[in-house]
Fold this protein.
Amino acid sequence: MRRANLTSPPDGTWSGLSLEVQQRPRPDLCLLTAPPHRLLLAQGGTPVLLGVVDPPAHGVDFYRTGHYRSPVPPLRASTARAYGGSTDRWAHRFADLLATSPGTPLHDGRWVLSPDPRLRHWNHARRTPAEYWSSMLIEGHPDGYVDWYVHNGSFEIFPLRPMPDAGDSRVKAYRKQALDGTLPPVLLWWVSGLDCPLILDGHARLAAAIAESAEPALLELHRTVPEDEAHTATHHAVSAYETELTRFAELRALHGPGVPDGAEFAGPILSRRLHEARTGHRPTWAWPLPGGTEEWERIARDHTAGHWNLDELP
């Protein structure tokens, strides 16, 4: 897997990693679909999450099987101290693990590992970190509902296992790191079919940050623009920039040097477009479930043990 550091305009600060994945046509953590509106998330062939989209697009009924296993081995406190809360160092560490560990969602294509997921920007009411991040967690175990109607655009966080409470031994250990600023990031995976990020690793770390009302460090993995589309979008962005500068030059020729040259206005737009061309979100890939709806229903019956009423689902 090839990787490269990303920087964001206009100051060129580090903004994540670009990952180029090859020779992995299908991931171990795989999203499968069956008509009508059935979803299945499987890890190494084992079902970990069943979902049914509530038409037309109100939300998703879900059931967690309890079989999810993090692809990230336990993080040592000594490593956390050595990294000192450096999100970029953790990004490289997680990239190594995602490339070599079983049970990850990586497959062929381009990906971004970003420290600035969109859900960071929705705390308009300026709630405390504990209040805000608690409200962003999708509740329910083993079953629940992702409500797109009520939380449209809020990008809630989907735990793949029950969130531990503040008294959990792992949470207690992480709470000390949350206080001293060395808490490792929570690793998320954006899944467009659920319209939210899933926690790949870090349930206890997020619980610790909430318990201490500290802002959690986050790293979100998402599919991004294919190379050919990135080149096309880059070309269009540069062409638009040149057209805008030409327009300002014509205005200067007509009205005199009091008219700006346009770079101050067009430059930031170009920077944003170039950044989006290389890092923009793309829909999560899904594969058809062999056996279709009948197989999905069989899996649902086997793994929900009668706790999920399939007859009441859409």
About this structure: The mean pLDDT is 91. The radius of gyration is 22 Å. The first strand starts at residue 2 and ends at 8.
